[in-house]
Amino acid sequence: MSETPHIDIDYVAKLARINLTDDEKSRFSSQLDSILGYIDKLNELDTDFVAPTAHPHEVFNVWQEDSVSSEMSVEKALSNAPKQRQNMVVVPKVVE
Amino acid sequence: MEYEAVIGLEVHVQIKAESKIWTRCRAGFGYEPNTLVDPVIMGLPGSLPVMNKRALDGIIKAGLALNCTIPDQCKWDRKNYFYPDSPNNYQITQYDQPICEGGEVEIELDGETRAVMGQHKKIKLTRIHLENDVGKLNHFAEDSLVDYNRAGTSLMEIVSEPDMHSGEDAFAFLTAIRQTMIYCGVSDCDMEKGQMRADANISVRPVGQQELGTKIELKNLNSITGVKNGINYEIKRQINELRRGNSITQATWRWDADAGRTEHMRDKEDAHDYRYFPDPDLMPVKIDDEWRNRIRSEIPELPFDKQRRFMEDYELPYTITSVLVPDRNLSDYFESAAKQNPKQAQAIGNYVVNDLQRELYESNESLEDCKMSPDLLLTIVNAVDKGVITKQIAKDVFIEMYKSGETADQVIERKGLKPDFDEDQVIAWCKEAIEENPKPVEDFKSGNEKAINALKGQVMKKSRGKANPQAVDGLLRKLLS
């Protein structure tokens, strides 16, 4: 590829709802740029004769019948939550 | 200038199932917070989704009932966004290969009165796709609390074409979808439990203009009435803006049902960039004719078809069918009785819609649990038909039967309601009534038809309500002629 792809680090950070310092911005954007460059190698392949595919394996219709078998206690489910109240996860107020 | 509104709806409907869509954790409403969760729901590292077959069957059934095409293959995509309702930071949905394409929904608008069938029309669908529902946020003054019980529930999104023009259209559209889903057993569509939710895209344009106006997405339409009121308010608001010379900016607004108005939520600049890509954890699904046909054979007669048939085959008035048909159990109940005595179908319909509904409501019993079976109902219909008891007395007999589970004849016998007199006695009472009431007799003879009712009333009184009013009417006319 002739051109190196470039990532808009501010936009990506906004989508991910994270704040980055200037130092992190320059570090991450060069790291992500190199990842994108690596992935971009795929564009060098001629895929004109390959049908669009959703999955690398030729496997379809994988499912289970509808029955209840899996569960987890509230305590366990919330053990990773930084803050909890009334058995619910406390998050900053974001009204959508 | 005259304006017209153009409306498209996005309707989310939860598919009824024991377990969730990507894991066999229980699905349900009204459980203690965060008790219907597991590693897949909480998005824990290493957990993998596995499709629930029932969700696929459910959406195919919904799609076929709404006249969609079911393509041979569909696939799953990740919709990426960062919001606390989704622990994975993505929702698995269908982007470019949905399971149902096209389709149309037959709707009925309100008639001139409740007794008249309204106009029917067809609303086109764009697609229906399958995805997982997300967790529920409860907002407080300082923070929000998240309950993930709802997350992972099988959810279909029914997307209509911009094919509606009023809140009334949207109301009828949702009513039709709800009834169809309930008939098919795909969902209960209880909006209070969040089983059915709707967003609307609304724009207005001068009448005659082809191009669509700028659209507003309207959210928070929490009831079918809310959808109607919210949309009608928003249409008026947009038309007023244009009349004042202002323009509409594409944005998301929300309906405030308490205040009875719409309010601005966010502009289009904040619109999400979801960065869809195929989900690597789930395999695509192939659907063949055998599968389509199996599901098609499970679809019951749909409500509007049943209503037309009831009106034709049983000559039921529209008002009775419009109570019977929305309730599949009630209409099945009616039909199992009416099939056995089609000539009395109207009488059966009346008992089901009036007396039975009233007793069920007052006793708080379900149709399945109550003692009044269709066969039992037929015994009272026959007793009235044969003139054993009057319609008036039948009302009380019905209540007794409902309570005890006895046949009409048993109640009539036990309560001594059978006439304890013969026709000669009735003739004698008629003669008495004529003698005692010269004024109505004179009125009737001089052409006042209604005057006979006064005489009839006297005879009924003498028989303590047990005489057959039609027979009395006939006898009086004979005696007066």
Characterise this structure:
The complex is a heterodimer of chains A (about 100) and B (about 475). Chain A is an alpha+beta fold. Chain A has helices at about 10-15, 20-40, 75; strands at about 65, 85, 90. A two-stranded antiparallel sheet of chain A has the order 2-3. Chain A is flat and about 55 Å long. The two termini of chain A are about 40 Å apart. The model of chain A has no long low-confidence stretch (mean pLDDT about 85). In chain B, helix 12 crosses helix 14 (about 450-460) and helix 12 crosses helix 15. Chain B folds into three domains: about 5-295, no CATH class; about 300-415, no CATH class; about 425-480, Arc Repressor Mutant, subunit A. Chain B has about 475 residues and is α+β, with helices and mostly antiparallel strands. The interface between A and B is large, with 36 and 53 residues.
List keywords for this structure.
heterodimer, A: alpha+beta, Histone, subunit A, flat, B: 481 residues, alpha+beta, Arc Repressor Mutant, subunit A, nine-stranded mixed beta sheet, 17 strands
Largest sheet of chain A: 2 strands, antiparallel
State the major sheet of chain B.
9 strands, mixed
Oligomer: heterodimer
How far is the first residue's CA from the last residue's CA of chain B?
A: 69 Å
Q: How many E strands of chain B? A: 17
Counting DSSP E segments of at least 2 residues, the number of strands of chain A comes to: 3
Quick take:
The complex is a heterodimer of chains A (96) and B (481). Helices cover 31% and strands 9% of the residues of chain A.
